């Protein structure tokens, strides 16, 4: 039976300061997309508002722009998908086997407080689907509550881009909040690798998360084991 994966991407194009562009970290999408495509799964993109998902410029330069991301950039049909993402209300959660929240700093602004994303995530989780995130994508799970009122992340092991990685990347002062600290404040059992910027995946039942852009492949592979 074919599985259906919904990738969550951002609509945000810049930091609070418009002179600092941001957007989807492309390889975090493409690495997972390639893995799911190889299994013949159907896939779709959703964003908080629907429509265009901008790309993070820093992810489009060597060495971060790898073969997977270059192939996407060179495929007009796939690039068109980023111009016409679905809104959460257009997605029937009954047909979703796994959600995969992509990253890029952009998501810090529009993922956490999107009622549509929260409703979609709650519905997929409560019907037994997999909820996954990579890098900053875990910001999309910060405020999602289940039907009983509890936070989805409370008491569950999770990882995502660490504050030390923000500092090492030289962007900590530009961040709207400390995502790692906010996760911990919500009762999540945050975990990270001993060494920054290496692939690291944490799975807690049907909740799967990867720490940074280099964790996208391993995150998608862990999702596969649950499907």
Automatic annotation (TrEMBL):
The cross-references to InterPro entries, in alphabetical order and at most eight, read: Class_I_gatase-like, DJ-1/PfpI, Prot/Nucl_acid_deglycase
Matching SUPFAM superfamilies: Class I glutamine amidotransferase-like (SSF52317)
Q: Give UniProt keywords alphabetically.
A: Glutamine amidotransferase, Hydrolase, Lyase, Protease, Stress response, Transferase
Pfam families membership = DJ-1_PfpI
DJ-1/PfpI domain: from which residue to which, for each copy?
A: 29-224
| An annotated GO cellular component | cytoplasm
Please give the Gene Ontology molecular function terms for this protein.
glyoxalase III activity; peptidase activity; transferase activity
Domain of life from the UniProt record? Bacteria
Q: Does the keyword Protein transport apply?
A: no
**Which GO BP terms apply?**
methylglyoxal catabolic process to D-lactate via S-lactoyl-glutathione; proteolysis
Give the family per the record: Belongs to the peptidase C56 family. HSP31-like subfamily.
Name this protein carries in UniProt? Putative intracellular protease/amidase
**Species per Swiss-Prot/TrEMBL record:** Endobacter medicaginis
């Amino acid at each position: 039976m074919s599985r259906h994966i919904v990738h969550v991407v951002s609509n945000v194009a810049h930091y609070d300061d418009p002179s600092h562009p941001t957007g989807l970290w492309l390889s975090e999408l493409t690495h997972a997309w390639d893995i799911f495509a190889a299994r013949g799964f159907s896939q779709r993109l959703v964003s908080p508002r629907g429509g265009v998902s901008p790309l993070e410029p820093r992810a489009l330069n060597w060495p971060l722009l790898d073969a997977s991301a270059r192939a996407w950039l060179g495929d007009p049909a796939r690039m068109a998908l980023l111009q016409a993402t679905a809104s959460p209300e257009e997605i029937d959660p009954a047909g979703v086997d796994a959600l995969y929240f992509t990253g890029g700093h952009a998501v810090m602004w529009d993922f956490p407080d999107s009622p549509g994303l929260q409703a979609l995530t709650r519905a997929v989780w409560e019907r037994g689907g997999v909820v996954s995130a990579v890098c900053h994508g875990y910001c999309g799970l910060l405020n999602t509550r289940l039907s009983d009122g509890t936070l989805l992340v409370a008491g569950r092991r999770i990882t995502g881009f660490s504050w030390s990685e923000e500092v090492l990347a030289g962007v900590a002062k530009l961040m709207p909040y400390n995502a790692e600290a906010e996760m911990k404040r919500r009762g999540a059992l945050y975990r990270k690798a001993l060494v920054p910027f290496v692939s690291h995946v944490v799975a807690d039942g049907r909740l799967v998360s990867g720490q940074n852009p280099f964790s996208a492949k391993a995150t998608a592979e862990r999702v596969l084991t649950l499907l």
